[in-house]
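Q: Predict the assembly, please.
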Amino acid sequence: MSTDKTFGDYGGQYVPESLMPAIEELTDAYERYVLDNEDGFMDEFYRRLADFGGRPLPLQYAESLSERYDTDVYLKREDLLHGGAHKLNNALGQVLLAKYMGKERIIAETGAGQHGTATAMAAAHLDMPCEIYMGETDIRRQRPNVFRMKTNGSEVTPVTTGRGTLKEAISETMRDWATTVEHTHYVIGSVVGPHPFPRMVRDFQAVISEEVREQVQEKAGRLPDAVLACAGGGSNTMGTFHHFVDDEDVGLSAVEAGGSSLAVDEEAGVAPNSASLSTGEEGVLHGARTKLLQDSHGQIMESHSVSAGLDYAGVGPELAHLVDEGRVDAVNVDDDSALEAFHRLSQDEGVIPALETAHAFGYLEQHHDELGDVVVVNVSGRGDKDLETVLEETEKRDLDVAPDMSVLRETGGGGGI
Amino acid sequence: MGLERVFADEPAFVPYVAAGDPSYEESLEYVEALERGGADVIELGLPFSEPIAEGSTIQGAVVRSLEAGMTPERYFAFVEDLDVGVPLVCMTYYNLVYQYTHPETGETGPRAFARRAAEAGIEGFVVVDLPAEEAGPLREACDEFGQDLVFIIAPTTRGDRLDRMREHVSGYVYVQARLGVTGARDDVSGQTEASLARVADWDVPKAVGFGIKTGDHAERIVAAGADGVIVGSALVDIVAEGHEEGQPTAEVVQRLESKARELKQGALAGARARAGVDGS
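A: Predicted assembly structure:
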């Protein structure tokens, strides 16, 4: 059995030669264990996702939002997965695969820290040493997750190059892997990177849409008209979309971070957004051909989003392909709308979403009347990790839905989460 | 004849520096100093913002060069401004090749890049993140413009993969001396001899790189069977130090030339040692 390395024009294996043998070894392991369930790998994966992860997870009817938008809104509660985000689906799958492959050490990059914490948990659960690379900017804005990774026994190594976010963390993890490739597995955190990562990560995350497809038919009596998920690298996106791709009547919208503006500053090399599907150009980064935020020479731009987990200049090659094919709609929501959606979901539904997830709800607010009668939104993660950022960013803005936080100032608090 | 020619008579010294590090004008003088010091072919880096195979030394060079305004077009102008007689190889990452637009023909992609490089006088390429499997379009362009596409053989490249790579090599083969990223080291990797042994019967010259820092290293690597030594970080360290400490350009030029001489002499000594062993 040999899997396709590309999705249309996207994908491939653009990595240094030193990594190619490991990529070939991983491809072989992916085909045998994941696709062919050799040695009962997938059975063990599903068993551990249930016992350790808490799957299956509910599809919740959102009463307030449904009333507000006069449409049936369902929430896929990936925020209830162990660790608080969809990331464990992939991290557990890959750490388990590394064990089956006889690897002795795990490395991973992290942006928001959700993939890092999920990998640290999976590594502790399966007794593997683990080192997480994290940009120093992200370490500052996601401190609770750094504590969690350390608490699970992982090393956390700061990355100081560039702006110190996800892009630099991936580059630095690839450098570690180039050195340690013979005994180390790189648990990449999204549907990005060289083949087989985009396919394999999607397959581990596809448990989301596998459940949703069954649950929504049970609860709504039919398939949804629209499925929404936020998109940075795109792993919760592809996981939520995968089992609906062939259902042509189900609209799929990937909601990117519009940041503060969709314009780019070529001179400074900065795009104040992370909307690579909406505005990026085809190029090659971190092992794959995909849509990228880059300048006219091909240098990669520094992206920006209020949510660290979406702050990446690239996107998964399969998503880029599905957008080109017209199957997935690439849309975006700016920082302000995401923050408002964060507060709205917290107040109306009692669910504090990750800032990444809040983008999907920002889109729902703006476009609910175009989405049909049954809408599923993936709650990719919970927002505890973002409370400090939200507090800070909300203070800078005049948002209608934000709560009054003056009690913190009056009591001298503010940063103590 | 392609780049093989520079390895024909004696072991080659192949230095790497990033073009435009720390500035266009200084860099021109530095590259010329390397030739005077004994370079036989020069790998001239075209910096990419995400250098995933580079250690901190060359990452620093990339940042300095980009901050000083290096672009692919300025790079080709730089090559044209250089006053050197030895062949030049462009070392870069694939996205810059893929995105390139030829200023006159308007063509984009690998063929446009190879064409403009040929016009500027570039004789070959090392594209760090372009394994043989993905190299088809650039390979064709190189054939059309008479350039070599140099591939890296890693310590992990073995078995079938080694056989497949053999069909793709041209000019010389870049033997990566150790796993990991670029950077000067204080020892010669034990993996070097094993890596060289795996390609011993290939009929292209073998140039060894990654971690070589001194004339003594160069000597031992050539004595072990290499046809050339590739040295980057040990030279970039001199450029970086000169920049950080504000040394006069002439002083950095002198230090680079002297380091180049040390490495070339080391390589020559390695060849004599090998001849001595072979002759006994």
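The mean pLDDT of chain A is 94. Chain A touches chain B at residues 12-22, 24, 161-162, 167, 171, 174-175, 178-182, 269, 281, 283-287, 289, 292, 294, 296-300 (CB under 8 Å).
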